[in-house]
Amino acid sequence: MNKKADRIKERLSDAFELPKDIILDIPKITILGSQQVSIENHKGIIEYDEKIVRINTGNGIVKIEGNNLFIKYVLQEEIIIEGEISSIIF
């Protein structure tokens, strides 16, 4: 049932030219070089230390690995993580 609803939402998004990340409740991840990651539409922080940050999203967990990682800020809809980012795993 969820897949059918998602297909309908995707078609509506295309028809009305609405952003899919908002309509389908999927994360929008923006990477700036190897120094910053922005995750929109998150569901919260699961794990956080200077080497690993795990973020819950509507589509699963996003794991960010690196060194000297820190959360620059957290808003209800967006998290900014900075540091020496070596990998992002979906």
Notes on the protein architecture:
This protein has a six-stranded antiparallel sheet, with no helix packed on it. The chain is an alpha+beta fold and 90 residues long. Helices cover 21% and strands 56% of the residues. The two termini are 24 Å apart.
Which class of secondary structure composition applies to the elements? alpha+beta
User: What is the CATH topology assignment?
Assistant: Immunoglobulin-like
Output the helix-strand order: HHEEEEEE
**Could you list the spans in which at least 5 consecutive residues all have pLDDT below 50?**
none
Helix tally equals 2
Main sheet attributes: strand count, strand direction, barrel closure: 6 strands, antiparallel
The beta-strand count equals 6
What overall geometry do the principal axes of the alpha carbons give? Answer: elongated
